[in-house]
Design goal:
alpha/beta; five-stranded mixed sheet; 15 strands; binds glutamine; Basic amino acid ABC transporter substrate-binding protein; signal; ligand-gated monoatomic ion channel activity
Length: 229
């Protein structure tokens, strides 16, 4: 099994889908920015690896890991049983969860039950899409990115979006998307992990770096920068 005996390489090619602020996005200069980007760069520094990002569509990330065309992925990706069948994950680095967004003047929707037979926009390949697919009678529209799904809701073409709460809240708070609100409780508790090809020697390298950064304050500093807590 060659994958298990490979040495950690000097450069880590890391996939990300950069339309998921505040975790990953392109800033006004077209540069990658966000919590995940800072975290991954700090992991590289801590572990003595050069990090080279590669932008991919979210639903192309796991296939790229399986094909071995990238060494890792950091993309607000939830650690799920299903994904663990095909890739490995680092230890969890962020706690998140799904939330329902509706138009700001909507008074009908607060729970998943209220979404039966409604039109819902989701991002393809995500835990939000999976959750929406289980709602009886719901009509799903799928988009390549979360901002596109949220814009569809702002345009009034769907009744709701199911997406990661921190990302939807950031879109509303930043003014990137107008006229929306988050309703009800979080639908899930999810943990993000850095995904790697099965058997990658870099799982341990990344976990050790994360552990060091959680102990020496580097993680807290990056968290504070993006979430202010
Ligand atoms: N956390 C969600 C998932 O893993 C969404 C991730 C994303 O859109 N970048 O499916």
């Amino acid at each position: 099994d060659s994958a298990n005996t490979e040495e950690a390489t000097g450069t880590l090619t890391v996939a990300t889908e950069p339309a998921f602020p505040p975790f990953e996005f392109q800033d006004e200069n077209g540069e990658l920015a966000g919590f995940d980007i800072d975290l991954m760069n700090a992991i590289g520094e801590t572990a003595g690896l050069e990090v080279q990002f590669e932008s991919l569509p979210f639903d192309g990330i796991i296939p790229a890991l399986q094909a071995g065309t990238v060494d890792a992925a950091i993309s607000g990706m939830t650690i799920t049983e299903e994904r663990l069948q095909t890739v490995d994950f680092s230890r969890p680095y962020v706690k998140a969860g799904l939330a329902i967004a509706v138009q700001a003047d909507n008074t009908e929707v607060a729970t998943l039950d209220d979404l039966q037979d409604k039109r819902i926009a989701v991002q393809i390949g995500t835990t939000g899409a999976e959750t929406a697919a289980e709602i009886p009678g719901a009509e799903l529209s799928t988009f390549d990115s979360a901002p596109l799904a949220l814009q569809e809701l702002a345009n009034g073409n769907v009744d709701a979006v199911i997406n990661d709460a921190p990302v939807t809240l950031d879109a509303i708070a930043s003014g990137n998307i107008d006229g929306l609100k988050v309703v009800g409780e979080l639908l899930t508790t999810e943990f993000y992990g850095i995904a790697l090809p099965k058997g990658s020697p870099n799982v341990e390298v990344i976990n050790n770096a994360l552990m060091t950064m959680m102990e020496d304050g580097t993680y807290a500093e990056i968290y504070q920068k993006w979430f202010g807590e």
